[in-house]
Amino acid sequence: MLENFSFRTIVEYLPLFGHGLLATLWLSVVSFAGALAVGIILCAMNLQRSRLSKVPAKIYIDAIRATPLLAQLYFLYFGLPRLGVVLPELVVGILALSLNSGAYIAEIIRAGILSISRGQVEAGIASGMTYTQRMRFVVLPQAFRVTIPPLLGQAIVLVKDSALLSLISVSELTRAGQLLASDRFMPAEGFITTAACYLVLYYGLKGLAALSGRWLGVQSVRSGA
Amino acid sequence: MIEFRGVNKWFGALHVLKDITLSVEPREVVVVCGPSGSGKSTLIRCVNGLESTRDGVLVVDGHRVGDPTTDMTELRAEIGFVFQSFNLYPHKTALENVTLAPIHVRKIARSAAEEAGRELLARVGLADKFNAYPSELSGGQQQRVAIARCLCMRPKIMLFDEPTSALDPEMISEVLDVMVSVAEEGMTMMVVTHEMGFARRVAQRVVFMDAGAIVESGTPEEFFSNPRTDRSRAFLGKILRH
Amino acid sequence: MIWQQFQSLIGSYPLALRGLGMTVALSLISLVLGTLIGFALGILRTGGNQLISRVIGAWVDLIRGTPFLVQIFLIFFILPELGIELDAFTAGIIALSNLAACFICEIVAAGIRAVPTGQVEAALASGLSRWQRMRQVVLPQAMRMSLPPLVGQYVLLIKDSSVVSAIGLTDLTRVGWLVVQRVPNGLLVFAIVGIGYFVVCYPLILLARRLESRMGAAHGEVQL
């Protein structure tokens, strides 16, 4: 039973969890930046007319969405050495998270761009703007606002997904919990503390999402139609 | 200024413009009317290339529309287009909406563009709304911003696609007044509208369309007092009843 | 070398089949349980009782705020400490069903909230009971809204089932992990594992897209 739940051991291991929290935080930030880059490139490819650029992007996005992150992670972890590429576990993990989230972000951005009404584009065309000018001044600034909330949602998913990196021995939050569980045979202490740390990150991001929602709500965007 | 010669257009199997021949002279105001689905909006959307035509010739300001050698973005800068649904940019203030194209398409200095923009917004009666976002404006106010947005490009031609049909009745006249003043300054205008009062006041010509073809064309006096075809009589009967 | 690997891979196909079977079994059982519990929770969440609604909301937040891997570890390692003996399979089912139920609860609740109040008022006015209103008027309309995200959620569930390999269940991912110890070609092994998931998930993704576009079209009709 849990009557001998040991807060003392948790306190003892607190520095480890602190490290784990920071590691999860910064590797998530790096992965999210990478995912944004992957997503923007994929989305740009997907919005082209040429099938040569569209089809590979679509295949990539579907392949990522129809397979589990863990299988993708193992694919890179066990597969890259096969190609002679030997990378530290941490780098493999960040790579996997970026490549995975990038596919979802590509779809978020695409939905944002497609949500801009035809009339907005036509107004740009009618005033003599080029494609680039329309994108830059009319479409993207509006799409940006629409995509902020789902992007934050994806950030939450990414932070939680990063727990899988513990399975290839990256030292982060979940790994800290596993260490406490196996060193002291105290899984309850280990994983409850881990969960609590994730909840801190979760509520932080959720708060941010609410804040951005309010900020975007103030400059309420209503299309003229 | 605008010349259609035998222009046809299909949407799939639907023949939406049938052998249109029409010319609009400089400083002329032409009102296009007709029942919904008659092709009148499609007609003026062809003028600045929002719709493409399949055969026939369409010359605007000396350039052939749809010709590969015609730089459409340059031509469009000379043509103002006012939409039924305003299409103001919701993320930009009234003044920013007005100055965006002058700054980036005409490459006018920001300060000069803003000065011109303020002047035009004041002219359409919105001197106190420079920094308002579209969502903070009424429909009538939004449409006046849209007209100022076109005027700020110093266009040679202005096209209006049912500019008052999305408006509440009490806001229609404020928009029409602005359009009348633009017409009286000698702007070349093509206006798709059912506002027959506007046609009487400023149009030199009324063109009546039905089922994709121009059925009748004449001065407002002729058209209203003595419509020549059954279809135009039926149409006038419907819109003048209320 | 490659040929040998292939032979060795082909030799492990019974294991692969077992893994695929395990993945399908886990997903299917949790899908059914998760859907039933999720609908019940979703209806309770919008049922008007503040306390129940808050408690469910808090639980959903806890589950949504923590990684699934951590949830599995908690269930697998802590329930026995509370005197509940369970094997890895049961632990996996509990974890997956709970996860699915929480997400489905939110989907169903959102669908119910999206039904216009006029509909409920019309049902009230015609004298339908509380349950009749739910069953005849609200749920059918809510279902139309909820169906595409629900199917999307099933895809997530199948993919999440891969995480139970961490507590030693021999599912598709675990089979890949076992095989790659003998056949050191991670690209090949996990490409095959990926194809296994793809075959199950992709049809569901296509279905979700179709439902979504059909719903979009239906919306268009209403707007006209």
TrEMBL record, chain A:
Q: Which InterPro entries match?
A: AA_ABC_transptr_permease_3TM (IPR010065), ArtM/GltK/GlnP/TcyL/YhdX-like (IPR043429), MetI-like (IPR000515), MetI-like_sf (IPR035906)
Just give the chief location class. membrane
Keywords from the named record: Amino-acid transport, Cell membrane, Membrane, Transmembrane, Transmembrane helix, Transport
Q: Name one GO biological process term.
A: amino acid transport
Q: Give every ABC transmembrane type-1 domain span.
A: 21-210
* Compartments reported by the entry: Cell inner membrane; Cell membrane
The source's superkingdom equals: Bacteria
Query: What GO CC annotations are associated with the protein?
Result: ATP-binding cassette (ABC) transporter complex
The record gives the membrane topology as: Multi-pass membrane protein
MF annotations from Gene Ontology: transmembrane transporter activity
- Segments spanning the bilayer are 20-47, 185-205
Under the heading PANTHER family, the entry gives: GLUTAMINE TRANSPORT SYSTEM PERMEASE PROTEIN GLNP, MEMBRANE COMPONENT OF AMINO ACID ABC TRANSPORTER
Function per UniProt: Part of the binding-protein-dependent transport system for glutamine; probably responsible for the translocation of the substrate across the membrane.
Q: Which family does it belong to?
A: Belongs to the binding-protein-dependent transport system permease family. HisMQ subfamily.
- Protein name listed in UniProt: Polar amino acid transport system permease protein
TrEMBL record, chain B:
> What domain of life does the UniProt record list for this protein's source?
Bacteria
Q: Name one GO molecular function term.
A: ATP hydrolysis activity
* ABC transporter domain mapped to chain residues: 2-236
Q: Which UniProt keywords apply?
A: ATP-binding, Nucleotide-binding, Transport
Check the record and name the PROSITE patterns matching this protein. ABC_TRANSPORTER_1, ABC_TRANSPORTER_2
Q: Which family does it belong to?
A: Belongs to the ABC transporter superfamily.
Q: What is this protein called?
A: Polar amino acid transport system ATP-binding protein
Q: State the organism of origin.
A: Phyllobacterium myrsinacearum
Automatic annotation (TrEMBL), chain C:
Annotated keywords: Cell membrane, Membrane, Transmembrane, Transmembrane helix, Transport
Sequence ranges assigned to domain ABC transmembrane type-1 in this UniProt record:
20-208
The record gives the membrane topology as:
Multi-pass membrane protein
Task: Answer yes or no on keyword NADP.
Answer: no
**Pfam families given in the database record:** BPD_transp_1
GO CC terms in record: ATP-binding cassette (ABC) transporter complex
Q: Which InterPro entries match?
A: AA_ABC_transptr_permease_3TM (IPR010065), ArtM/GltK/GlnP/TcyL/YhdX-like (IPR043429), MetI-like (IPR000515), MetI-like_sf (IPR035906)
- This chain's protein is named Polar amino acid transport system permease protein
